[in-house]
Design a protein that fits this description.
The protein has 104 residues and is mainly alpha-helical. It contains four helices and no strands.
Length: 104
């Protein structure tokens, strides 16, 4: 354990002692962020933002995930889901202005 704190590598047979353990001994929850995000590594939020330009209803679905605090599962998703909430708001405002201009 002193070797990890000193920044030295473990003695392993396969790697020749060249690698350091990256997991945090004090907080094992940090190891879960070593996994890549879903949807090609971009995350659900950013992929939903891009797909929302094809079908804007996807922005509303991702905004619901944002308001239901889906980002507590993985905080890296927060910015993409927040961008979807903003895009859904802008889409709603533009739609309301367009409908008001047509019917009034």
């Amino acid at each position: 354990m002193d070797k990890v704190n000193a920044g030295q590598s473990y003695d392993c047979k396969d790697c020749g002692g060249k690698y350091i353990l990256i997991n945090d001994e004090e907080d094992p929850r940090l190891a879960m962020f070593d996994k890549p995000l879903p949807c090609c590594g971009c995350g659900i939020g950013w992929c939903s933002l891009l797909l929302g330009f094809v079908c804007p209803l996807i922005w509303y679905c991702a905004a619901i995930l944002y308001f239901c605090s889906y980002y507590h599962r993985d905080p890296r998703e927060r910015s993409g889901l927040a961008a979807n909430a903003v895009a859904a708001l802008v889409c709603t405002i533009v739609s309301l202005i367009t409908l008001a201009a047509i019917f009034l």
